[in-house]
Amino acid sequence: MAKQKNSNPEHNEGQVTKAIEEQTAKLPSDIFLWAALGSMGVSLFLQYQGSKHRSLFVGQWAAPFLILGLYNKLVKLEGHD
After folding, report:
1. Cβ-based neighbour number of residue 58 at 10 Å
2. Where do Basic and acidic residues bias regions lie (predicted)?
3. How many CB atoms sit inside 10 A of residue 27's CB?
C-alpha cells in the first residue's frame, strides 16, 4: 500500500521541523533507551549517596528520553511531509 502524502498545505511541516527530523532520524533508536536507563542508574547512585533532590531530578529524565525515542522511531517509520 502506497503512503499518502498530506495534500493539505495548511498542515505541512515547517522547514525547521523537517531539518530536525532529518537529523534525528540518523540517530539509532536505542540511544534514547540507553539514556533513559542511564538516568535511572545515575538517579539510583545519587539516592544512595544521599542527594535526594538531585536523584529525583535526574530520575525524571527517563520519561522524556523514552518519549524522544518514540518520536525518533515514528519519524523513521513514517517520515515527514
Report:
1. 20
2. 8-20
3. 14
CB 72 within 8 Å of CB 24:
yes
Cβ atoms of 36 and 69 within 8 Å: the answer is yes
| Angstrom distance (rounded) from CA 26 to CA 23 | 6
pTM: 0.73
Write out pLDDT tens, residues 42-68. 999 999 999 999 999 999 999 999 999
Distance (Å, whole) CA 1 – CA 53: 51
Is 12 strand, coil or helix? Answer: coil
Among 43, 62, 64, 39, residue whose Cα is nearest residue 54: 43
Angle between helices 30-49 and 62-78 (to 10 degrees): 180
pLDDT at 17: 79
Q: Is 14 helix (H, G, I), strand (E, B) or coil?
A: coil
